[in-house]
Amino acid sequence: MNNWRLIKLNFGNSPAHFGELGIGMEETSDRVRSDTLFSAWISACARLFKKDDFEKVLQQFLNPQPSVTMSSTFVYRHHNDRDIYYLPRPLKFPPNYPAGDGDLEFFKAYKKINYLPLEVWYKWYQGEGFTIEDRQELIKETNKKKSDGFLHEQGTFSYKEAFKIGQEPKIAVDRLTRTTNFYHTGFVQFQWEQNGNDIESRSGLYFLLNFSQKDETLEDKLCAALQLLGEEGIGGERSSGAGHFEVEWLPLPEVWQKVVNFKASHYSLMSLFWDNDLSALKHLIAEDKDACYEIIERGGWISGQQLRRKMLRMFVEGSVFSSSPLGKIADVTPHQLIDKKTKKPKKHPIYRSGISLSLPIKVKSE
Question: Which of 129, 138, 137, 192 is nearest to 164 (CA)?
C-alpha cells in the first residue's frame, strides 16, 4: 500500500535564491526542482545522523526499487480560506481539446499557463477534460477581458500573485586586493500577510512524498533532517539569511487522494527523471508514440569547493509517457575527486537524484 505525504515549506518573510543552470546571480527561480531538493536534504541527513544511520537512509534511495520517491517543489497559495496547489501543465493536450484553426483564438493564453491549480488540473486530465466554457474563458484572457468563470475562480491566471521576484544590490570584496565588485542578486519573496495572530494570506512551496511501504523510522529521520535544512536554509545566499523555512509534514489531504489513486494509461512527471538504462529509455521514447517530453541540462557547483558536478540531461516535469518511469540516482562526482588507482571517490560520491514521481492522466487522442 502506498503511503503519501504532502510537505509544505513555509518561508514566511524569509526571501530565497534558487539558482538554475544558465542564469546568473541576477535571476532566481520561483521553486526548487527534485534533484536540488534531494541533494540539500541528503546533505542535511549526513550532518544530522551518525555514519551508519546515514548510510541506511541513503541506501533507501540507492536500491533498485527506492523506498521513497519525491516530486519537485511547486507553489501553493492560501487564499480566501483555501489552499491552491499548482501543478505543472502536462505537455500533452487534455481530452476534448479542440484542435484546428479555431484554437488560435485562445492558444496564446493556454500556452502561457505553465502551472494549473489542482482543481483545474484534475478536471482537464482526470475528469471531464477541456470544455467549451474553458475555451471561452481563455479567449477572454487572450483579449484581456475580465473573466469570472471556473478557471478564474480556481486561480489559473493568478499564479504570479503568490510571490514576487526582485533584486538586491550586493558588494563583493576581494580578499587579497580589497577591490570591490558591485552586482545584483535575485530573490523570490513568497506572499505572507498577517493580521495580529491570524494569517490572512500566505504562499510557499510544497512537494509530494510517496513511501513504497510504511516505515515510521525512515519517515521520522527524513522529517528531522528536513527541519534541520529549514533552519539552515535552502538555495543560495544563505549567509545573508535567505532560504529559511518551517516544515508542515502532512498526511495527504483528501482532495489529493482521488488524484494519486486515479487509473489511466498515461503519466505526467512531477519530478525530474534520469536513467542510464538504454533499453528502458528506448521503451519510454522510441517505442512510445504518445511520449511528449522536454529535456534540461543539470549541473552546478559542489558546496564549499570550486568544482562542478558532472552534467546530466534530465526529463522535466510535465513530460508525458505511456508508462510510469522509475529513474535512478546518478553519481556526478567530478573526475578531480576520483582516485586514479581505485577509480573510486577520494572521500564520498556526489549524487544527483533522477528518481521520478509521476501522476496518472488522460490525454487527447491523436
Answer: 192
Grid cell listed for 28:
532566481
| Closest-CA residue to 38 (of 333, 353, 257, 337) | 353
Q: What is the DSSP string of 221-267?
A: HHHHHHHHHHHH-SSB-GGGT-S--EEEEEEPPHHHHHHHT---SEE
Query: What values do phi and psi take at 101, rounded to 5?
Result: -65, -30
Under DSSP, is residue 41 helix (H, G, I), strand (E, B) or coil? Answer: helix
How do 198-211 and 246-251 pair as beta strands?
A: unpaired
For the four alpha carbons of 275, 318, 352 and 219, in that order, the dihedral sign comes to: negative
Q: How many CB atoms lie within 10 A of CB 154?
A: 18
| Amino acid at residue number 293 | Y
| 361/292 Cα distance (integer angstroms) | 13
Q: What is the 3-state secondary structure (H, E, C) of 169-220?
A: EEEEECCCCCCEEEEEEEEEEECEEEECCEEEEEEEEEEEEEECCCCHHHHH
CB 199 within 8 A of CB 78: yes
Give me the torsion for CA of 327, 333, 334, 338, rounded to 10°.
Answer: -130
CB 184 within 8 A of CB 169: yes
Q: Which residues pair with 269 in a beta bridge?
A: 358
CB 19 within 8 A of CB 235: yes
Mean pLDDT of successive 10-residue stretches along the chain, which has 366 residues: 88 88 68 94 94 94 93 93 94 88 78 96 96 93 86 94 85 73 81 68 92 92 97 88 93 95 95 89 82 89 69 94 92 70 67 95 86
Query: Which of 20, 21, 76, 40 is CA-nearest to residue 238?
Result: 40
Q: Quote the cell numbers at residue 281.
A: 529509455
- Residue 14 grid coordinates: 524569509
Which helix (H) or strand (E) element contains residue 282?
Answer: helix 278-284
Contacts of 322 (CB under 8 A, 6+ apart): 265, 266, 267, 288, 290, 291
